[in-house]
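B., you asked whether I could sanity-check this one before it goes into the benchmark set. Here's the sequence:
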Amino acid sequence: MYDTIKSEHIHPTFVALGDIDDFKYINDHYGHMCGDYVLVSIATIIKDILFQSVGIVRWGGEEIVLLFEDEDVMMPKAMLEQIRQKIEAFDFNFDDQHIQVTMTFGLSAVLDDVDDAIQNADEHMYQGKRSGKNQIIS
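And here's what the prediction gave me:
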């Protein structure tokens, strides 16, 4: 799996998996054009916060994978928290309707295998979903 997201410039030490909370509801209630607007807006928010040494890949419909090269877990956590807060506070306004959007993230260290780290990040993310959403679990 990592081969599909590997970059010659990114040698990740941490992997985060993020999922837009209740994205299916957004698509079903407001329409797929709104869902696309939310995806593009979130991509812009993330791009504005992240450093160039962070890789980002869309993973499935509304999930993203972030690859961090930082050795200190506090930096990826701080960046994810900035993203989480900015998404929560952002005024998603589509067709004159305000839409509350949040995201849940799982963060995992890359020990030996990136696929294992993605799996761990995915498990952390779902733990965050089950325990209230809109949070970061590592």
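One thing to flag: The first strand starts at residue 14 and ends at 20. Otherwise nothing jumped out at me.
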